[in-house]
Write a structure and sequence with these properties.
The chain is built from twelve helices and eight strands. The strands form three sheets. It has a four-stranded parallel sheet, with helices on both faces. A two-stranded parallel ribbon has the order 5-6.
């Protein structure tokens, strides 16, 4: 009896040990990847496919700047095989924890060329001495919203492929193949945007905050932002007055607001100038309804293209 019980105990111990190895039970043997917010999670999902389990730290419908990590999310971040995030203070809580890891944490901004893209084009037009200052008179800052330029998004996809291949070399060929397929999809999207915005009557876009510099730069548009890089930044009265004058003088018909931020200021500016409002998504996150509808980074970018073409009177 004792010998039988001992053998049973040994067998159970071996089973538990096997179950704890190579990523644990919860992942089903897949690589565990934690992504800081939607565009990063989307890239990881596209590159990793069935070989990864991706957890997005930013819940659906939540503005990523506002995310607060739960104790469970902290555990997931600390225990993941790979953590993908962006630095520059975009999500300080995530960045701080990711930087504490010995390995497996990748700041995608390390491989992407960023610019001080919140340049206040309106102030520059008026001949201001601080044309590089961002709206709202904040300090000049580097714009992290690279994913609104599909070409920069392609660079991020390659970084994700490198990170996953490094964590699981045996699956590297699959990750590279998946990345190549997604790069082709993003290249096609880039061409659609370039053609669709090539011959528009107007080139200025009034946006609720300065998230669209890279999109504007890529396709020859000019961003006129109500607020600065942070969507919570409050525009001052002088800024709103200047925007109002510009909207009327240039015949701008649309003030864009975002799907995850209050449209109150955009609505007020539109009413004062006789303009209409429309959604232009910075794709910092998707709502639950969008996810249920099967929306993705690519399809929301196409929605943005349709909204821009209507607002800018593109043939």
């Amino acid at each position: 009896m004792r010998r039988t019980a001992l053998l049973t105990l040994v067998a159970l111990t071996a089973l538990v040990a096997c179950g704890d190895s190579g990523g644990g039970d919860a992942s089903g043997g897949r690589l565990e990847v934690v992504a800081s917010f939607y565009p990063v999670a989307q890239a990881a999902t596209q590159v990793g496919g069935d070989l990864v389990q991706v957890r997005n730290l930013t819940p659906a419908g939540t503005e990523p700047h506002d995310v607060e990590l739960s104790p469970r999310q902290v555990d997931q971040l600390e225990g993941a095989d790979v953590v993908l995030y962006i630095g520059q203070g975009f999500q300080p809580a995530v960045e701080t924890l990711a930087e504490r890891r010995d390995n497996g944490a990748v700041d995608l901004l390390d491989g992407i060329t960023l610019e001080k893209g919140a340049a206040d084009a309106l102030h520059a037009e008026e001949g201001g001495e601080e044309a590089g200052a961002e709206p709202g008179h904040e300090e000049e800052a580097v714009d992290p919203h690279f994913w609104l330029d599909p070409q920069r998004m392609i660079t991020a996809v390659d970084e994700v492929a490198d990170a996953l291949a490094g964590a699981s070399p045996k699956d590297a060929a699959t990750f590279r193949s998946n990345a190549a397929r997604y790069r082709a999809e993003l290249t096609q999207l880039d061409g659609e945007l370039e053609r669709g915005l090539a011959s528009c009557t107007r080139r200025e876009i009034v946006t609720s905050h300065a998230a669209f510099f890279y999109l504007a730069e890529r396709y020859g548009l000019t961003q006129l932002a109500i607020a600065g890089l942070s969507p919570e930044a409050e525009p001052d009265p002088e800024r709103l007055a200047s925007l109002s004058d510009t909207i009327e003088s240039k015949g701008i018909t649309t003030v864009f607001y975002e799907d995850l931020v209050s449209p109150e200021v955009a609505n007020t500016l539109a009413r004062e100038t006789g303009a209409t409002t429309a959604v232009l998504s910075p794709i910092e996150g998707l709502t639950k309804d969008q996810l249920d509808e099967g929306k993705t980074y690519v399809t929301v970018m196409r929605d943005n293209l349709a909204a821009l073409r209507k607002a800018l009177d593109c043939p």
